[in-house]
Amino acid sequence: MKNQNSNRYLFLLVLTILAMYSSAQNKKSFQEDMTEWKQKRIAALKAPNGWLNLTGLYWLKPGKNNFGSASTNEIVYQHKDMPKNAGYFLYENKQVYWVTAETVKITIKDSGVSKVLVYEEGKQVAPLLALGSLRWNIIQRDDKIGIRLRDLQSPKLSSFKGCERYKDDSTWRLNARFEKKQENKLLITNVLGQTNAQESPGKLIFSIAGKEYQLDALGEGNELFILFGDATSGKGTYPAGRFLYADLPDAKGNTIIDFNKAFNPPCAFTIYATCPLPPKQNILPIAIKAGEKDHLGGRR
């Protein structure tokens, strides 16, 4: 009898140790996952196509748009690499050409250009023009055509130390159920006030503290993209809401929504972005104290 009790004790002890080990491994995996995610996040913000180097957004008018540092230009940008007149954008017939001024060297992929098509409606042209540390290309927002200007030596790149965050907490990593929607269009408005109907594959349904919530999602590649706000919006997190990605659901419609990976939209870092806003139904009535907090320095 004594040996049986002893064996039972040893068996329970082994189970306890295994459970503790498994828990430690899961915790370690979560911490490693978050460390890797945050490193990638900072690298993306600092990348040449990231948001920290965005330094200008200028909307073109039909016709000729002179570009340079002199006040006589339609588009004025003061910078050590910008000549008084760098050239001009010619916007007509749903096309935009860039024409380089004489004695100025503007390049595309290190090759000098004198006149080049940089935008045509319905086509993915938009090459990147370069001058010194400056880079610019054409973007379209509905009926507006503009220049997105970057400075690869922007002081924000060296001063950025990361985003303030809530403490990583695995309890904010939630099981979610994906449900397809009968109406697969989601109306998304951006900060310019423009509203577009975008494809929505469905919604994610999850529970917090025993209560069920849901968020409509957009499809983006092999992931779901979610725009959401909550009770922390404007009270610790970016006022207009945050962004979040989730894996596509498995065959049973299950996935994970991890609010630790909620992140600021580009507009938190620069006034020159044109961010989409969360639809009304994606404003949660509770406080999601996870993920990135507001980056106030980005808009100063």
Map the helices and strands:
Elements: H1 2-46, E1 54-59, E2 63-68, E3 75-76, E4 87-92, E5 95-100, E6 106-108, E7 111-113, E8 115-120, E9 129-131, E10 134-141, E11 144-151, H2 155-159, E12 173-180, E13 185-189, E14 195-199, E15 202-208, E16 211-220, E17 223-228, E18 242-247, E19 254-258
Describe the structure.
The structure is a single chain. The protein is of the alpha+beta class and 300 residues long. It has two domains: 29-49 and 160-299, no CATH class; 54-153, Sandwich (Tumour Suppressor Smad4), CATH 2.60.200. Helices cover 17% and strands 36% of the residues. A six-stranded antiparallel beta sheet has the order 18-17-16-15-12-19, with no helix packed on it. Strands 3-2-4-5-8 form a five-stranded mixed beta sheet, with no helix packed on it. A hairpin with a 2-residue loop joins strand 6 and strand 7. The longest helix has 45 residues, at 2-46. Residues 21-25 have low confidence and may be disordered.
